[in-house]
Design a protein that fits this description.
Blueprint: H1 12-22, H2 38-55, H3 64-70
């Protein structure tokens, strides 16, 4: 039998507990795949953009006209 399970908001302690329960049946095999939610990915991307902006790496423009002029459009 194959059982697929999705658990949201799991931490390392829960993962370790699930693995130890599965070890009670020696023939059981466990594979765990971490998935990041879209919200987590967007938060990480937003944090990276803010860091670049604070360091002055990321260019910002006050208007679309300013952007077009800077890029020769």
């Amino acid at each position: 039998m194959v059982v697929n399970m999705t658990i949201q908001n799991a931490d390392n302690a829960l993962v370790a507990a699930i693995k130890s329960v599965c070890k009670l049946h020696p023939a059981a095999k466990v594979s765990i795949k971490k998935e990041h939610s879209l919200a987590d990915e967007l938060k990480a991307e937003q944090a990276e953009i803010l860091k670049e902006h604070e360091k002055g790496i990321l260019k910002t423009y006050a208007s679309m006209e300013e952007y077009e002029a800077a890029h020769g459009l």
